[in-house]
Amino acid sequence: GVPAEHAGIVGTGAWATLVRESFDEAHIAHVGPDRLDLDSGFRLVFHDKETGKKTFVARYGAEAQGNEATFDPLEPGEGDVVHISGNTLLDHTAAGIDEFMHRAGTDPSARPWRLVINPTRTLALVNDHLLEDLVLARPTWSCNRQEAATLADRLGVDVDDSASYTVGGGFDKSMRALCAALGETLRAPLVVRAGSRGAWVREPGGETVHIEGYPTKPTHTRSAGPCHTGVTCAMLARGWQLPDAVRIANAAASLAIQHNRAGVPVCPSYDEAVAYAGDEQAIAA
């Protein structure tokens, strides 16, 4: 949908070669540092089909060996969207993220570019100082409901969870309450994803809005969250408003699950996503 660049560290070796080939296949330019003395890391996912249990085994590599200056060369331009993954918040590279947060400042209206954070399940382990700096930067947060609940707990947000998290009745009420309470505390745009139910969106000073999803058969073993966040970023970079961007992201996540490779969701093209969402005007544009 839009030109994309990766500002993280890529190493040298077998795994790094796979990373670079994947970037080339997806037309993503690597603009970050290179490490000649260390390979990139990898993660293995073992999935038990009988129990549904997943076991993750990770080996960190060059991408985890950053420092305070890692992202100093990064100068986002007007209209750019900078996406930060939660995977970079736990290792040495997190120091570079923290420095970048200081440069970003605490007033989103003073930035000509947009900051988006997908904290992933690592959120519970992020140190208090870094979490505070992330919150003060007031980025757009994209979380699933478990991550949103963890963030609310970390920040001491009082959420009315009297309604049970069940699809049959209290689910919508609970999601709306979580998104509203957390969004008010963050004073920043918030997207809380809920799989086939779509996502709940709240922007500062506004009401919480439910953006319906596009249910599909769950044949995947990995989350479609990265696809959803990536498409949201792409649509924001195109100038779309957040609720409309999330609507296309909901459609893209559904297609990604349908087109998964060995259980890993594969993000569709821009045209495929907007067509699935029924947005013919976007296709014409």
Overview of the structural elements:
The strands form 3 sheets. Strands 5-6-7-8-9-10 form a 6-stranded mixed β-sheet, with helices on both faces. Strands 1-2 form a two-stranded parallel ribbon. Strands 3-4 form a two-stranded antiparallel sheet. The longest helix has 17 residues. It folds into 2 domains: 64 residues, no CATH class; 220 residues, UDP-N-acetylmuramoyl-L-alanine:D-glutamate ligase. The chain is of the alpha/beta class and 285 residues long. The mean pLDDT is 91.
Helical stretch tally: 9
Assign a percent range to the helix content. 25-40%
Task: Identify low-pLDDT runs.
Answer: none
| Most strands sheet | 6 strands, mixed
What is the CA-CA span between the terminal residues? 12 Å
Q: What's the domain count?
A: 2
Look at the structure and give the mean pLDDT. Answer: 91
How large, in whole angstroms, is the Cα Rg?
19 Å
CATH architecture of the largest domain: 3-Layer(aba) Sandwich
Strand order of the largest sheet: 5-6-7-8-9-10
Number of strands: 10
The percent range for strand residues is 15-25%
Q: In CATH's first tier, which class of the largest domain applies?
A: Alpha Beta
Outline type: globular
CATH topology of the largest domain: the name is UDP-N-acetylmuramoyl-L-alanine:D-glutamate ligase
Helical/strand content category: alpha/beta
The string of secondary-structure elements, in order, is EHEEEEHEHEHHEEEHHHH
CATH homologous superfamily classification of the largest domain = Ribokinase
